Amino acid sequence: MPQMTLRDIALALELSVSTVSKALRDSYEISEDTKERVITYARANHYLPNRMAKSLKEGKSGSIGVVICSIDNSFVSRMLDGIDGACTQAGYDMIIMQSKESLVQEKSCLKQLEARGVEGILISPSAETVGFEHLLALREAGMPIVLFDRISERFESDQVGIDNYQAAFQATEHLIANKYRRIAMLNIGPDVHFASQRGAGYLDALKRNHLTYGEALVRLCLSSAGETLKDCVRAGIQSLFELAEPPDALFTATDQLSTLSLSVLHEMGRRIPADIALIGFSNTELADVLTPPLSTLHQPALEIGRLAAEKLISLITHKGIPEGYETVRLPARLDIRDSSGPRVRKQVIV
Asked: What domains lie within the chain, and their CATH numbers?
């Protein structure tokens, strides 16, 4: 069935196309009775305005761009749900693009979104994004930008994420309270701001409790050409067990590192937590049914996405340079399960 047009409504109600258009736009030139007739008929017949024509006329696309690292995990999916809810309520569409943790791809995504005429951009920067010159240039050209999830002090903008330092500190303190003393960490690149904040929280918890810390117990995992992220995780964990004094606990700094570490430890025949305890960032809904159930730092993904989208829509609606930028840091929730249970010291039989 062809889509209903303004002309169809005008013919049915014996009105001019101009009158119908003004009625749907709530123009003061049209009487309330006529507006009611037009709106009622349009709704009853599922009339949808021509978004493209409207955008050309008003100079607005009615859409925002969203750049994420990858869509293949539950945490990102939940953030997108939050963004979608806020956009739907405000009457915006969203165009989603993936950087795949590549700065080159991120820049390409931004260029494509700008070419499509989006009114603003939400971005969770890639793991390779150290400098923010490309975002600064885009903002100086008039594009509203809000960072979400991967927030950074290196770029002045409205931002929404979690308190990465406190979350990592809390997880490490939990392991220490359960009598673990050689606590290793899997993280991504040190130049990534959120990763460095998580690393700082981990290290400060060890220092405060006078425990061993340093590069020997930290492994960085980033997928590269010819190597998957799981390969990198496997190599990192294997090298930790080859130390003269292997770790008795492992803290993982991202959602993917957490679930991949659990898988690798199983493949290696390591018992959790008898051989090594495990805790990390993860929003997987399967944490309770994994073997063993996985202790996690759960991030409020839906709320991060919703708040970030609301901030961007506010910037778009209230055009002009904001008086100041706000960074919202939400708390992560520590969910304790079997994988980080109290350490049981092994008995030596003589």
From this structure: 6-49 (no CATH), 61-162+301-330 (3.40.50.2300), 164-298+335-340 (3.40.50.2300)
